[in-house]
């Protein structure tokens, strides 16, 4: 059986028998060898493209997330939840029993942590000069 590939920008994006590929003769080429999807055609030869694995995103469980804050920070935030709707919403999500982990690389997580830090500065629990350090410690999953 003849093999064919759909090639776009010298990269194989699909392979198969001619009757299994879409009717796009401008994209379909008869090929020698059997490339894998993602392989690159260089000088008439198929080369396996080196694909860097996506870095693992830092994540922690909900309880571990709370433990990224000191006792004084946690107690202050717990008290402030009664008067700050954004803080209450953030921790309602963290405490949702369906939540399996907190993705520390999400923008929404960073925004929630930034809000917590801002409140902790206003409550004089952490100094403004320590804010960047605390943010980095929390978002990197560093337990104190």
Shape: elongated
Number of strands: 7
Given helix and strand content, the structural type is alpha+beta
Largest sheet: 3 strands, antiparallel
Helical element count? 5
Ranges where pLDDT stays below 50 over 5 or more residues in a row are none
Task: State the distance separating the first and last CA atoms.
Answer: 63 Å
Helix share bin:
25-40%
Structure description:
- The protein has 144 residues and is α+β, with helices and mostly antiparallel strands.
- It has two domains: 4-47, no CATH class; 59-139, no CATH class.
- It has helices at residues 62-67, 71-80, 85-94, 107-122, 131-139; strands spanning 4-8, 11-16, 28-30, 40-42, 45-47, 59-60, 102-103.
- The strands form three sheets. Strands 2-1-3 form a three-stranded antiparallel β-sheet, with no helix packed on it. Strands 4-5 form a two-stranded antiparallel ribbon. A two-stranded antiparallel sheet has the order 6-7.
- The protein is elongated.
- The chain starts with a strand and ends in a 5-residue tail after the last helix.
- The mean pLDDT is 85.
Summed up:
This protein is α+β, with helices and mostly antiparallel strands.
Topology:
Layout: E1 4-8, E2 11-16, E3 28-30, E4 40-42, E5 45-47, E6 59-60, H1 62-67, H2 71-80, H3 85-94, E7 102-103, H4 107-122, H5 131-139
Antiparallel strand pairs: 1-2, 1-3, 4-5, 6-7
């Amino acid at each position: 059986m003849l093999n064919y590939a759909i090639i776009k920008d010298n990269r194989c994006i699909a392979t198969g028998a001619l009757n299994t590929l879409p009717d796009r003769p401008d994209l379909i080429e008869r090929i020698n060898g059997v490339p894998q999807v993602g392989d690159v055609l260089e000088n008439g030869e198929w080369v396996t493209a080196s694909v860097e694995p996506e870095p693992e995103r830092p994540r922690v469980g909900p309880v571990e997330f709370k433990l990224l804050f000191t006792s004084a920070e946690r107690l202050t935030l717990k008290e402030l939840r009664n008067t700050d709707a954004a803080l209450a919403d953030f921790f309602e999500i963290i405490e949702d029993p369906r939540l399996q982990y907190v993705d520390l690389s999400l923008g929404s997580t960073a925004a929630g942590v930034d809000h917590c830090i801002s409140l902790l500065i206003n409550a004089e629990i952490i100094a403004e000069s320590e804010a960047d350090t605390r943010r980095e410690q929390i978002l990197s999953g560093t337990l104190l």
